């Protein structure tokens, strides 16, 4: 009898798991893909903006990691991967807009000179003096990235450099993020004996930075992440059940029983194995009766929210000659009012293929980071007005959009706090001891697309190993 596997969660991690399960279990396997929302893809969401496919969740992937490019090649869509233009980013900090400094590791300077345009004279003096401080008191324990940097390099490094960069990735604050999960290369350098943060940053910075032509750091899909999601579904050939919450997960003698669908008449699904590729709150709920220790660890993962706004500006609009601008917390407009946006991506500058069907110029605005939840309660029209005003103040671009789109990601970004690695190790230790169960998703080993795909593939490998190695009978339909 064919094996039956339920993949709970239709984001990119779940789709990756379903695809790999199909490849390894074969055409006869029954793969049921269950997604609570109305559409698949999760944060890999693509919409139409002025007639162009536009990613309104994840915007790009790290091309230096192999997972996306390898998967695209396997799916036959490698020719649809595009590289950015090479335009450089800028940063708004200390009341001025400057080129984003090179010679840093996630904003942590490898020298004072590398960040001179962004810091004040006092801030630069603090960075210069860091190497002369007593060696970093270091142990195997995790620490707050922000607090370590404030103690060693001063507040300006955190507020003007590190926070704006991490705000775009995690929608969080460096003070609330753990060094080992967020900046593992920096932690490894300190583990290896670096006596200062400056020395650790110098060891972590790519030696190729600033040395002539190099491979693109980021990539995207010409048709948006929708193209990747659609191809994963097409080749995985699962039974897709969208708009279908999973209400409970029960371990049975010969597999699993899932209660799915809405009250008052939920359905049941009997399976041989289950992959959970869902956000932490859903994982906690479903694992409480199955793996309570793992459920508690998921409950300890905080979440942050953000809003992405897509703006289609008239074709004659001229954007600044950069890929976009990061905005430090507390920066203000010329009239003294605080900027609402945390970043702008000048999409039509960054990605040469991205223009509206009528030549419209596309811009992405991002709002929302830890401690600024109140701004997310604004309505769509209020947020759009605020972001359009910010864009005008920062760039001089005063054209009104001809079309807009707003995507709200409530609780969409896991926060990798101090000790996050230990939480994940506990989750994986508990789950690995339960035959026929695996977990995947952004809460584990990275919030980027490559990391999410990797967790899906790893979960599928665990399930395949169990099913093909157990020698037991499959459950009935």
TrEMBL record:
Any single Pfam family the record assigns to this protein: Amino_oxidase
Keyword presence, Cytoplasm: yes
GO biological process per UniProt: heme biosynthetic process
Amine oxidase domain boundaries: 12-463
Main location: cytoplasm
Any GO CC annotation of this UniProt entry: cytoplasm
Cofactor: FAD
InterPro entries in the record: Amino_oxidase, FAD/NAD-bd_sf, Protoporphyrinogen_oxidase, Zeta_carotene_desat/Oxidored
Subcellular location: Cytoplasm
PANTHER family found in the cross-reference section: PROTOPORPHYRINOGEN OXIDASE
Role played: Involved in coproporphyrin-dependent heme b biosynthesis. Catalyzes the oxidation of coproporphyrinogen III to coproporphyrin III.
Protein's name in the database: Coproporphyrinogen III oxidase
């Amino acid at each position: 009898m064919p094996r039956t596997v339920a993949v709970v969660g239709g984001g990119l991690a779940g789709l990756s798991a379903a695809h790999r399960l199909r490849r390894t279990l074969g055409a006869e396997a029954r793969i049921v893909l269950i997604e609570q929302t109305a559409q698949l893809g999760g944060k890999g969401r693509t919409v139409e903006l002025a007639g162009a496919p536009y990613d309104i969740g994840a915007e790009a992937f790290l091309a230096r990691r192999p997972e996306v490019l390898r998967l695209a090649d396997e799916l036959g869509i490698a020719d649809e991967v595009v590289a950015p233009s090479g335009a450089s980013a800028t940063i708004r900090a200390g009341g001025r807009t400057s080129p984003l400094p090179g010679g840093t590791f996630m904003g942590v300077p490898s020298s004072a000179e590398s960040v001179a345009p962004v810091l004040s004279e006092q801030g630069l003096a603090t960075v210069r003096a860091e190497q002369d401080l007593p060696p970093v008191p270091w142990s195997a324990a995790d620490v707050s990235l922000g607090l370590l940097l404030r103690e060693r390099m001063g507040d300006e490094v955190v507020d003007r450099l590190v926070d704006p960069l991490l705000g775009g990735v995690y929608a969080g604050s460096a003070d609330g993020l753990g060094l080992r999960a967020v900046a593992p290369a920096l932690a490894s350098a300190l583990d290896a004996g670096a006596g200062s943060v400056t020395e650790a940053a110098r060891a972590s910075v790519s030696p190729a930075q600033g040395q002539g032509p190099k491979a693109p750091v980021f990539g995207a899909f010409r048709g948006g992440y929708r193209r990747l999601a659609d191809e994963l579904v097409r080749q995985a050939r699962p039974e897709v059940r969208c708009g279908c919450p999973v209400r409970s997960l029960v371990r049975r003698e010969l597999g699993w029983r899932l209660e799915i669908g809405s009250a008052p008449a939920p359905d049941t699904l009997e399976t041989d194995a289950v992959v959970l590729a869902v956000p932490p709150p859903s994982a906690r709920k479903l694992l409480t009766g199955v793996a309570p220790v793992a459920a508690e660890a998921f409950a300890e993962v905080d979440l942050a929210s953000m809003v992405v706004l897509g703006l289609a500006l008239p074709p004659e609009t001229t954007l600044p000659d950069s890929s976009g601008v990061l905005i430090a917390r507390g920066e203000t407009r010329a009239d003294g009012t605080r900027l609402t946006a945390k970043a702008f991506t000048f999409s039509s500058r960054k990605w040469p293929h991205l223009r509206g069907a009528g030549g419209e110029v596309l811009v992405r605005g991002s709002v929302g980071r830890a401690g600024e939840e109140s701004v997310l309660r604004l309505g769509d029209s209020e947020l759009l007005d605020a972001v359009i005003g910010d864009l005008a103040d920062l760039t001089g671009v005063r054209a009104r959009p001809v079309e807009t789109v707003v995507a709200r990601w409530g609780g969409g970004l896991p926060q990798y706090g101090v000790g996050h690695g230990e939480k994940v190790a506990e989750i994986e230790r508990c789950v690995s001891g339960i035959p026929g169960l695996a977990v995947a998703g952004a809460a584990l080993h990275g919030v980027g697309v490559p990391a999410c795909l990797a967790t899906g593939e790893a979960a599928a490998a665990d399930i395949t190993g169990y099913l093909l190695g157990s020698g037991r009978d499959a459950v009935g339909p």
